[in-house]
Amino acid sequence: MRHFSYTRAESVSEAVAALAANPEAKVLAGGTNLVDLMKYDVMRPAAIVDINRLPLKQIEDLPNGGLRIGALVSNTTVAYDERVKERYPLLSSAILAGASPQLRNAATTGGNLLQRTRCYYFYDPSTPCNKREPGSGCSAIGGVNRIHAILGASESCIATHPSDMCVALAALSAAVEVEGPQGKRYIPFADFHRLPGDRPESDNTLAQGEMVVAVRLEGNHFAGHHTYLKLRDRLSYAFALVSVAAAMEVADGKIVELRVALGGVAHKPWRDMLAEAEFAGQPAEDVTFRRIAQRLLTGAKGQGENDFKIPLAEKVIVRALRQAAAGRPQDQSVKAIQ
Amino acid sequence: MDLSSQSHTAATCPVSLTINGERRSFDIHPWVSLLDLLRGPLELTGTKKGCDHGQCGACTVMINGERMNSCLKLAVSLDGAEITTIEGLGTPDNMHPMQKAFLEHDAYQCGYCTPGQICSAVALVKEGHAHERHEIREQMSGNLCRCGAYTNIADAIEEVMGAEKAAPVREAAE
User: Fold this and answer.
1) Which domains, from first to last, does chain B contain?
2) Choosing a second label site near A304 at 20 to 30 A (CA), which of A119, A207, A273, B131?
């Protein structure tokens, strides 16, 4: 690992000041992704700002029935929190579908949002990669791209966002609370992560010097009808090939409100709110679910080795919507798909 | 790693850790992982380095009672923490119940992943989220065993948990 200077921040303002003063500085929270990338020489921060002492470890109730989850709350703590399990079981389920218990204990809420892609070429500094080294080219296009994007990709980058938690947060329309030199602001989850376009080096819309301090969730009516369904190459401890976070409000057999976010298919958790709105009032049954799947996958494009993801995604969306409508969420320990 | 030679260089940071009940203070470089600190200067070589990237679980220890991959933790970020390694769980003469169960169930072959498996299993029992065998397997997914001792590892954990024995027919692919 390359050497770096180390600062232990004692307050958010101190951390923000350290980040704003040095564009080469990176925040260290749980370290599960950053330390790994530093060992591979993919990330080479000149300075580390350790935020583990900051008071961002609480899950607090919000007046609207929502929750504010501090950036340093571990993935494990969120997944097993009684309020999260009761009000946002989709979030709990998605977290438990990812990584291992050891990693979930160390990984933080803010860090999960900021984790980098697991594209093979991004991780290999001996190959061109526009995300790692802008302008060097994309090795995955025409290369080994079994795990890559089918939606929203560009000629510069076909990487996917690896998080499970973020797919649920996208479906739940969370907001990201950030603090920076200009003060505090709230970013709607759909606007937090970016599509690659011609700047794949930017994963998100954080400005220089800004840091994530919390994730905020509004009250909702989805606790009864939801699921997180994840397909991967082995049954546990692997990134998604395709995952679906589905939430639904159903009345008299009809969809009142629909939320569907896809993981493993794009540079960000994929959601199409216009498409979702089109299906309000439709019967909550397989015919509708297939139409929803086809609508969401409009414009999907394979890269060769990942062509299978398009028909796979269609089937996973239908299965997930069936689970959500029936109120039978996927059990993340029993691997059989209901 | 020779700690004394680093203790006066500008780039080192003071860190205090309680390791297996003993409070220790060091001056270390900020890029030293907890794993390298344990295995190097502290000579606690029970904790193993497998992949060094958080994928295999061989380096699992408990940090403030929670199991984590010590390879991905910068020791400097843990100032004030309590660390428990395999050496802190038991000794050959006074084994932890999980260590005994691993012996009794032959829950290893080469033994390289075993300290991480045992630390992980002890934490799993304490966490209390796993009750059935399939839940034990899911909750142990962060510990790989290339010898394939998974069936016996799950047996050992089940015994310690006092869980009911699994149905006589075991999953063939386990």
Assistant:
1) 3-88 (3.10.20.30), 97-161 (1.10.150.120)
2) A273
